[in-house]
Amino acid sequence: MARKGCRMKFEEKLNRIRYNEKRVLAGLFLVILFSLTAVNAVEFLLGNEEDGRRLGLERLGTVEDTAINAWGAVQCILSKRVAYGNTVYEDVTLLDNGYATMADQAESIEAAKEGSARAYALAREIGADFLYVQAPEKEYRKEDLPEGVYSFAPDKYEAMIAYLKESGIPYLDTREILLREAMARAGTEADAALSEGGSADEEIPDELWYDYFYHTDHHWNTRAAFTVYGAIARELENLGYPMSVAEALDESNYIQRNYEDVFLGTQGRMTGRYYAGLDDYELWLPEFETDLSMTVPSSGLYREGSFEDAFVFYENLDGYSFDHYAYYAYLNRDEDHIILENRLITDGPRVVIIRDSEAVPVSVFLSLCCSRIDVLDLRYMSGDEDVEGLIRSLQPDIFLYIFGTGYLGNENAMIF
């Protein structure tokens, strides 16, 4: 009887502990909910929006950031694999390996089909070469997502590659390029395996694929961008453009600086650092001589000098922040029109790129072997701008489209 009584007391104590834990979690949830509601109400009443945040509310922004971190911590404590984000984007989903993503719920690629077809037709009309560069989805396998969660990103990637192939539009399959490079790093014979009809994604461990991405963000990282830049440069060389690319393509000619825990990516901003974690950022700087310039006509920004002086914005690497985005250590942010000029190369190709943010690191590396690159982002151009007329006036040798899967159905991003 004494043993039974002790057992009952122990169970009662355990139940009280569990009850108190639930009360604490419920209280924390209400505090976070109240904080976010108050922040949104004050911002709505007091501020004008600029880049998604309110002017003059720096302190309030800190409160909001703290609330997002706390909310994400609750999601983590509850072991949630799908966390409700703080924006209109899709909810944040944790893959089996802990990487965060947003399961893409938009299935259409019609805008990308129309945009790439128009661009290819324009390139042929003005005598320029054309190349479509499709950035891959983050999810390596659909099975990496939690049960019950489906993302259309892999389907969209495959459908776009199939469309380009069937339409005869020149393209780069970056997924295959990255898998080949991963296989080489893994010490396997990529070309032999693929020539026998095998698929590269059957030959590498999953972690080698995710080495190309950030834990908290949807973009590819610097290594992946450098690898794809190399593939583009070799394609241009194969087209007959005079390019001095040997040293610019050799990664041993770059300083690779690692900045620890400075990057809170898109998914991290939606759920906070305690749910998604923090990323390191790797900044690659050429050790060889460079003389470059960056111009943003709409803002009047002009920078010149070495690769570092012209393109690197160290304020985005000062530390983890909801306001500074380490992915834009190169070029600082998206702009409607950025001009990159290489003053050491006078006879290299002139390039026009229409892109989303996946092209940021690719374009700065590509500038090392081109005379001039005009980077156009249709998302930031007004609807009455004559983009076709601008492209004609630039007289490019080659016209590139560089996009991830997220904007393939977005007419404002894909169609000029």
Write the layout of secondary structure elements.
Layout: H1 2-46, E1 49-50, E2 53-54, H2 58-77, E3 82-83, E4 92-94, E5 100-102, H3 110-126, E6 129-134, H4 153-167, E7 171-173, H5 174-185, H6 190-195, H7 206-210, H8 222-238, H9 246-249, E8 254-263, H10 266-271, H11 273-276, E9 279-286, E10 292-296, E11 301-305, H12 307-311, E12 337-342, E13 350-355, H13 359-366, E14 372-376, H14 387-394, E15 398-403, H15 411-414
Parallel strand pairs: 6-7, 6-15, 13-14, 13-15
Antiparallel strand pairs: 1-2, 3-4, 4-5, 8-9, 10-11, 10-12, 12-14
Describe this structure in words.
This protein has 15 helices and 15 strands. The N and C termini lie far apart (83 Å). 40% of the residues are buried. Helix 1 (2-46) packs antiparallel against helix 2, helix 3 (110-126) packs parallel to helix 4 and helix 5 packs across helix 8. Helices cover 42% and strands 17% of the residues. Strands 7-6-15-13-14-12-10-11 form an 8-stranded mixed β-sheet, with helices on both faces. It is α/β, with parallel strands linked by helices. It has helices spanning 2-46, 58-77, 110-126, 153-167, 174-185, 190-195, 206-210, 222-238, 246-249, 266-271, 273-276, 307-311, 359-366, 387-394, 411-414, and strands at 49-50, 53-54, 82-83, 92-94, 100-102, 129-134, 171-173, 254-263, 279-286, 292-296, 301-305, 337-342, 350-355, 372-376, 398-403.
